[in-house]
Design a protein that fits this description.
- Component of the replication restart primosome.
- Keywords: ATP-binding, DNA replication, DNA-binding, Helicase, Hydrolase, Isomerase, Metal-binding, Nucleotide-binding, Primosome, Zinc.
- The chain is an alpha/beta fold and about 750 residues long.
- It folds into five domains: about 5-105, GIY-YIG endonuclease (3-Layer(aba) Sandwich); about 120-185, no CATH class; about 210-390, P-loop containing nucleotide triphosphate hydrolases (Rossmann fold); about 405-450 and about 510-645, Rossmann fold, CATH 3.40.50; about 655-745, Alpha-Beta Plaits.
- Helix content is about 30%, strand content about 20%.
- It is built from 22 helices and 31 strands.
- Strands 11-12-10-13-14-9-15 form a seven-stranded parallel beta sheet, with helices on both faces. A six-stranded parallel beta sheet has the order 16-26-25-17-24-23, with helices on both faces.
- The longest helix has 16 residues, at about 715-730.
Length: about 750
């Protein structure tokens, strides 16, 4: 038998494939996972090529240690997708392909357990009745185990052990009592049996508006690659369009799969509930989720379900765009404008852009939905590259868009009208009125914590982070000062560390302070705060949102977590605080993001037929952005902003890349970037590229590391990409910094 060699992609910064000898009797094929020696350790890699010859000298070749035969190889199309992402975002193929796989698959020691037969437990009807009463009141761990059984169709043995150290013994005892049933299944079936071949329509479907029906028909009749921009006002029924389009496509092709992307994890529960309710004829596990909040085992099982075609619908955040889906037939990107689709660490990719490329690669429709599309997508539709589908009115017959009213804070001050901790009199009065009516209100403030700073009036001291060039945020409930950049935390000082003054005061307002103020300003109101601090524990966000939907909350206070995607049926008032800060940002995208946030949060009001009202507190009521918001005029705002971008030569009319450097000193980081800029002079394609001066980042120091950036741009995407490809090897030869990274199409500059 002649020798066989494989070229393997490894999760390593070097943009090359590594050759190995394949001595096993099992034939390796492209797309197969292998365990190989790399230096002094063994790592998992992905076979990209199989060849009979290798250019590496025989004495330097090492052999493949193991092959993962239980997991089918990924497809050639998936390898091409990751190769494109690696090339476009200037990373090694292994740095893209391997992190796209579940962590469990990247550990060869877990392969045998991962694909071994699984034991799973489920509650019997008798157990649902008898088990809760049989548990001791103080047995909190056992109660969690019982609750996990009650809330799911089945519980795997591995997941049970994670909940309780002696879970299997307890489950065996409950099995003896007849409360729990046990069955053993093959790994390939852990995520469920194959889906039903037909997708019968549910007995009752909402009546589509004419615009919804036209959108569904256009998506259903698409032939080959067809990018759609679904521009629908908030509450216009974009989700219903997704559901109908998917139902028709999946019914036409019994083995087809659909990928639905959402920007944030906290949006997945309500989407999953809607999809499971609509596609009830599917096996319960033929709809799976993929996001970073899943446990490793659960994510691996869901990925495997998608990879083997058992999952018909995959719902996930940005990482799901690189899931292996061999029968993919349609892609949906909800809230396509959201910056959360852009990864900010490691491979800095845009999930929305990769979704569009993947649809083009496979020749299938992709639907980008939003009430406030990104200006890049809007421009593509203006140019005719995307087909625009419009939903101009709300889907519920008696639901209309909320009225927007601006509260001039300067006018309120001139007239001597009192405010309470940043809440104006008109806003407090409107909140009290909603509480009296039994309606809900939403207060939006995109700043968590109690106050942005803690300061001393006597000497001017402001609490700062010792590791970062940033102020720390006061978190009053925890009695702590916390840095939101590095996580540094300290107790609140009793006095000013500079002058000893005991009258140190918080400056500004965060969601915690607003929550506290509302409790006294609106007596009797049930106030709930939802932000990154109140939803740290797994499942906490879903529980809090459930309280809101159940009507147990009168006033909801939150950050951007509550601004988009949620269907609050009882909310009739939205109040917006501290929006003015974004009007004067150095970031040219700040106004676009602010307008999108305000339009999205405004859309939470009046969705079920209740008259909706939005009150925006501002010191600049004559600003053009607020006027466009008052008219709910996204089209006008997009047109004027794109005209400004064109005149200023900003995206989408140019293409950009950002080189960031991190050093022990700012001088070292800037010197590295200046050397990097000098290297561009020898690259022919760089003649069509504009290079800006190296500058420090807005937050210069994080964790004692100083940061700077160098921006380059070009009116030609091809010229920029050619420049980056030639620049990368030169950058690797430069020294003097701790690390550097290159980002294509940056969102934060």
């Amino acid at each position: 038998m002649s020798a066989v060699f494989v070229r393997v992609a490894l999760d390593h910064p070097l943009p090359t494939l590594f050759d190995y000898r394949c001595d096993t009797s099992i034939l390796a094929v492209p797309g197969m996972l292998v365990s190989v020696p790399f230096g002094k350790r063994h790592v998992v890699g992905l076979v990209c090529e199989v060849t009979a010859h290798s250019d590496v000298p025989a004495d330097r070749l090492r052999s493949v240690s193991d092959l993962c035969t239980a997991c089918p190889p990924v497809s050639a199309e998936w390898l091409k997708l990751t190769a494109f992402a690696a090339d476009y975002y200037q990373r090694g193929l292994g740095e893209v392909a391997l992190p796209a796989l579940p962590q469990a698959l990247r550990d060869a020691s877990r392969w045998s357990r991962l694909f071994a037969p699984e034991e799973r437990y489920s509650l019997t009807p008798q157990g649902r009745i008898a088990l809760p009463d049989a548990l001791p009141a103080r047995a909190s761990a056992l109660r969690k185990l019982a609750q996990a059984l009650a809330e799911s169709d089945f519980l795997l043995a591995a997941d049970a052990r994670a909940l309780h150290p002696k879970a299997l013994a307890s489950l065996a005892a409950w099995q003896d009592e007849g409360w729990v049933a046990l069955d053993v299944i093959e790994a390939a079936a852990v995520v469920g049996s194959p889906a039903s071949q037909n997708l019968p329509a549910p007995p009752v479907l909402p009546t589509l508006t004419d615009e919804q029906a036209a959108a569904v028909e256009a998506i259903r009749d698409a032939d080959g690659f067809a990018p759609f921009l679904l521009h629908g006002v908030t509450g216009s029924g974009k989700t219903e369009v997704y559901l109908r389009a998917l139902a028709e496509i999946l019914a036409e092709r019994p083995d087809a799969q659909a990928l639905v992307l959402v920007p944030e994890i906290n949006l997945t529960p309500q989407f999953e509930a809607a999809f499971r309710a609509r596609f009830a004829a599917l096996d319960g596990t033929a709809i799976v989720t993929l996001h970073s909040g899943l446990a490793e085992g659960e994510r691996a099982r869901n990925w495997f379900a998608a990879h083997t075609g058992r999952a018909r619908i995959v719902l996930g955040t940005r990482l799901a765009v690189l899931a292996s889906l061999p029968k993919l037939a349609i892609i949906v990107v909800d809230e396509e404008h959201d910056p959360a689709y852009k990864q900010q660490e490691g491979l800095r990719y845009s999930a929305r852009d990769l979704a569009i490329y993947r649809a083009k690669q496979l020749g299938l429709p992709v639907v980008l939905g939003s009430a406030t599309p990104s200006l890049e997508s809007w421009w593509q539709a203006d140019q005719g590259r995307y087909k625009r589908l419009t939903l101009s009115r709300r889907a519920v017959a008696d639901a209309v868009l909320p009225t927007v009213r601006l509260i001039d804070l300067e006018e309120e001050r001139r007239r001597g009208r009192a405010s309470v901790e940043g809440l104006s009199g008109p806003l407090i009065a409107a909140l009290k009125l909603r509480v009296e009516r039994g309606e809900q209100s939403l207060i939006f403030l995109n700043r968590r914590g109690y106050a942005p700073q803690l300061a001393c009036d006597a000497c001017g001291w402001v609490a700062g982070c010792p590791r970062c060039s940033a102020y720390v945020v006061l978190h009053k409930p925890e009695r702590a000062l916390r840095c939101h950049h590095c996580g540094w935390e300290a107790r609140i000082p009793r006095s000013c560390p500079e002058c000893g003054n005991v009258d140190i005061e918080p400056m500004g307002r965060g969601t915690q302070r607003v929550e506290e103020t509302l409790a006294s300003a609106v007596p009797g109101a049930r106030v709930l705060r939802i932000d990154a601090d109140s939803t740290r524990r797994k499942g906490s966000a879903q529980a809090l949102f459930s309280d809101v939907h159940a009507g147990e909350i009168d006033i909801l206070v939150g950050t951007q977590m509550i601004a988009k995607g949620h269907d609050f049926q009882r909310v009739s008032l939205v109040g917006v605080l501290n929006a003015d800060t974004a009007l004067f940002s150095h970031d040219f995208r700040a106004s676009e993001r602010l307008f999108a946030q305000l339009m999205q949060v405004s859309g939470r009001a009046g969705r079920s037929g209740l008259p909706g009202e939005v009150l925006v507190q501002t010191r600049y009521p004559r600003h053009a952005l607020y006027h466009a918001l008052g008219r709910q005029d996204y089209v006008g705002f997009a047109g004027s902003t794109l005209a400004e971008r064109r005149d200023a030569h900003l995206p989408p009319f140019v293409y950009q890349a950002l080189l960031r450097a991190e050093g022990r000193t700012l001088e070292a980081a800037l010197a590295f970037l200046q050397q990097a800029a000098a290297e561009l002079t020898g690259i022919p394609a760089a003649e069509r590229v504009t290079v800006y001066d190296a500058v420090p980042l807005t937050i210069v120091k994080v964790m004692h590391v100083h940061r700077a950036q160098l921006l380059i741009e070009s009116a030609s995407r091809a010229a920029l990409q050619a420049t980056l490809r030639a620049w990368q090897p030169l950058l690797r030869g430069l020294k003097g910094v701790l690390r550097w990274n290159l980002e294509v199409d940056p969102l934060d500059i």
